[in-house]
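seq as requested:
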Amino acid sequence: MKKILLIEDNKDISDSIKEYLELEDFQIDSCYRGDDGLDQALAKNYDMLLLDVMLPGVDGFTIAAKLKEKSDIPVVMITAKDAIDDKLLWFDNGIQDYIVKPFDLRELEARINSIFRRNEKVNAYTLGNVMIDLERRTFKKDGVEVTLTQKEFLILEVLLQHKEIPVSRTDIIEHAWGGGDSLFDSDAKLDVYISNIRHKLSREIIHTIKWFGYKIN
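struct tokens:
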């Protein structure tokens, strides 16, 4: 069972989050003050920190910065702010994700699970007769090695990092192309690369989500 520390000064919000996540088999400890939460985060082993920005005692930015010096615990910021400067500040302080109030508790759970999956660092996959090792960049079909291009590898990588979860075309393009091509040009190329991967590995490996993107089962 994953242990999560929730630092949120609004008791109603805190109680709602705690009740929901405990029903989803997480162990939740709650703090309502930043200074108490920081002490608890440093004293105990947690798998994740859910952290409000505006807190009595010590603010969320300070807590995240201090934890970054001593721990690699993943942090999800709970905030009413959504400005780009705030986001950059959060990520500079080691925050892995954020969610803006008001939010659906199902979205919070999805973000938490996504971070845990990423941090598990699973790099080897067996999908039917296909073996994929992302760390070594080796790909085999029926035991025979297959060569993928850099773009094909990056597309496969982002899909496997979100295994069984649909990934939007935009997210795939941002991961594989970055800012190199225009979104329109990259979007036109994506289907060609997906087709190449299917041809090299298996037509069943990547599933099309109509009007959205792709996923791997």
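The chain has two domains: 3-120, 124-216.
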